[in-house]
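Listing S7. Sequence submitted for prediction.
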Amino acid sequence: MEKTSHHAKIKINSAGNSIEGRPLRYFILGEPTATNLVFIIGRQHPPEITGTIGLESFVETVAGNSSLAKKFRKQFQTVVVPVVNPDGVEHGHWRSNLGGVDLNRDWRNFSQPETRAVRDLFLQLASQPDVKPWLFMDFYSTGTNVFYAQPEIPGDWLPGFTDHWLAALHGKLPAFGFERDDSHNADLATGKAWVNGQWHIPAMTCEFGYTTDRELIRKTGKAEAEEMMRLLLAADSGK
């Protein structure tokens, strides 16, 4: 996140600490007066590097100097927790934190300090006057490029967002082939399930293939962010 960390308006904060005392760092992109929230997290599963590459490109695009990004930051704050499992990263764990728990199965019991800290951060930010959460994205790696979205139910905020966003992504970057699954882990204690249940907003995991070309991942992260910003700005202007 080196490019992003040099953004003039970014202040690095800590949402809490891991089991071993490492800070759970986060930052917020956007004007403090913006009342719309987007939540971005990553590295719940320590070794999933291609997800981190995509997250970095996505966030750097939101933090960029384009007219689209500048307009977006005036109306939306993007909350980024790039590493939710720092102990697991430090110790080379496959999926778990230092307590032996897969953090992306702990978003119901909140038995671990890492998930509690991120949950509390989101709840605190969302409880501010006139603030509205809009979107949640969680970045991973797996065997192929795939998006796992929470299934929409009547009354959800931004109905059809995922359809429009993925269609726009495919149109902009057809070289990036991907799958979509709205039923995968939908009832488990994942981050996307908790956020969707809490605020009824679009929530998804973005998974990049282990062997997907790294430059293509960077281009995809950029395109994902650009299409997200366009769609959310259009929705905000029409609400």
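Caption to Listing S7: primary sequence and predicted structure tokens for the chain studied. The chain has one domain: 2-238. Helices lie at 2-5, 49-62, 67-75, 86-91, 113-126, 161-172, 191-199, 214-238.
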